[in-house]
Amino acid sequence: MIDLYYWPTPNGHKITMFLEEAGLDYTIHPVDISAGDQFKPDFLAMSPNNRMPAILDRAPADGGEPISVFESGAILTYLAEKTGKFLPTDVRQRKTVLEWLFWQVGGLGPMAGQNHHFVQYAPERIPYAMDRYVKETNRLYGVLNKRLAGRAFIAGDALSIADMACYPWIVPHERQQQDLNDFPELKRWFEAIKARPATVRAYEKGAALSASRPTVTEQGKSILFGQTAANVKG
């Protein structure tokens, strides 16, 4: 039913987590971002920002032609609306889930991503940039830790797409120079999500790809970190 164009990165893991939790049938089509698969014309037709993940829903709710969706937050919202799962219909509860979903796609993901870049991958060590993004990641961990106080999940008592969006960005906490022991509510939530059978299955799917091909090679760095408008022009 769902074709998933995917590589095992935090944004990719969001979607396999949803699909496993929802029990949807899906087929993974690897998009090796270090090999430049994200620039292939067929993929760009679905994902014009040359980023994975993307999906192709071959059985949309309206019964029409297949629907493609790009951007992980949009995919999570689309799948939640399609299945009626992990996004409440109550206006207030829905609002809360979407707030925290947008918090992740607009804050936690970009800031942690810059943390990864300057701490792990940048050819030149720039102390100011490293300190800036490590501290901002730390601040965001604090925001999430406070939010989770007295709550099983980010939006309340039920698992939602907000949890699926945030969890993969906490997985590399050590690489982000963060200690989960400093955030007890976040750590409790993290361990609970990690233990869910659907999370285990989702990460097993990614591990199989990671074992076959490294995510970031020296050649891959030039592809990932050297993009300009020339890479996406028609």
Automatic annotation (TrEMBL):
This is GST-like protein. It is an enzyme of class 1 (oxidoreductase). Residues 1-87 form the GST N-terminal domain. The keyword Oxidoreductase applies. Residues 90-215 form the GST C-terminal domain. Keywords: Oxidoreductase. CDD domains: GST_C_YfcG_like (cd10291), GST_N_Ure2p_like (cd03048). Its EC number is 1.8.4.-. It holds the Pfam family GST_N. Belongs to the GST superfamily. GO terms for molecular function: oxidoreductase activity. SUPFAM superfamilies: GST C-terminal domain-like, Thioredoxin-like.
